[in-house]
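Quick start: what a row looks like.
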Amino acid sequence: MTMRHYLVVDDNRAFADNLSEILRDGGDEAVVVGNGESALAAVRAQRFDAMVTDMRMPVMGGAALVHEVRRIDAGLPAIVVTAYTQENDLVAAQQEGILAVLPKPVPVPTLLALLKAARRDGMVAVLEDDAALCHNLIEALRHRGFTAVTAASALDAERLGALRPFAALIDLRLPNSPAAQAARDLSQKFEGLKVLVMTGFPELRPTFEPAGVYLKPFDTQALLTRLDDLYAGARQTTVTRL
């Protein structure tokens, strides 16, 4: 099994060192830093498979750190741990695209499973105004190692411009948008974006060729399998270019 490299960012050194020891015992490597500036320096110097960061730290909190990391390494999966799950900064971090938010004290088995599953360059945009379906998709994506960033309307989707999803799951009918407009706009914004269309209206058809069309209610596992294939293809293309 290939060794994975993780970045652990926390001003609680005891927790960070304990987590890094667990990761190393499992055959992986971990770099531990105590603040955001050191984390950014580490991201510039080394390619990591995933990052774990505390939310509340002096000078630069977890939300600001994830934002800055996106500028350096847009494909790095990020997991936030926090004792304050309702704070506004957490909402800001989620808008940057994070793999998961875990409470403190941290459920270590859950954290280790997420780290093992985390996929570099595996961000997926989910555009769906059905809150229950959106939540279910996010959970399914997370367990598969994909980072989800969400939007509930076409206007909300405009903020995705700073991110770099490789694929998108898009409902053809969203508020504040003609049918299929968000899907068309996003496919034009992100070159090579793989778009999987979700719809409850079989008569609707996008004006572009999607990577898949799923009629509601659809088989989530079938959608995830298709996403796995698209991710593998995108990774292979990246390796070939390198």
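That is the whole record. The chain has nine helices and ten strands. The mean pLDDT is 87.
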